[in-house]
Prior knowledge:
Shape: elongated
Helix content: 25-40%
Radius of gyration: 22 Å
Order of helices and strands: HHHEEEHHHHHHH
Strand order of the largest sheet: 1-2-3
Distance between the termini: 53 Å
Oligomer: single chain
Largest sheet: 3 strands, antiparallel
Number of helices: 10
Number of strands: 3
Amino acid sequence: VVARPYPATEAAMATHAARLISGQNGAILEILPEFAYFRDIVYHFKHAVSGAMSTPDVDDGYVWLPTDATLKWTVKAKSETDKTLQYHVTAFRGTLQEFVDPSAARNADGSSRNAFSGFLSLFTRSKAARNKLSCADPTNIVNSCGTKFLKGKAKPVSVKNEDDILHLTNEELPTFGGVLTPADSERFLQFFTVPYLRIPLILDFFANGDPGRLVALKTKSL
């Protein structure tokens, strides 16, 4: 049983939860050490698909070690005047691992959430648009690699689901210089409409299908 703060005010409970989750208070990690691994796996995964840079600029030839990716969790006050706690996660020579959209850390009225709510936002989907265009967005792939769009100034198309892909013409489907057939291109694009599952689906597409697909990977655009 984990002791609760007394008096159990909302601010005290939020601070206590933040310290438990970050590991500053080791009461949970002593009982459930696997919790730290689960927490870090989720954070690394969300960071990987966010498009945010996780490492600082280094000299050419520098090799990062697995230990450099170890996440270090702390809880800090937002400022001297605003004592709202927020997570401070670093790795790779103390580089701040920041990826959560600002809207995910705020309430509907614009006020800041506490640290525990901020942690829960790691497990939810943010509604805010990403700052950078993702190479895993099927809309970006079609409009930048489709044969029709490479030839001239064609009107961009929106691709959000499998139905949108099925309605694409052969000229709109990206074949990456003819290395993928239209049927393979459709299947390949459909994987990008499934967040999180797209990575194993694409790996299986190239590893267990037509051997010619592996040769297609030499194409730079693909």
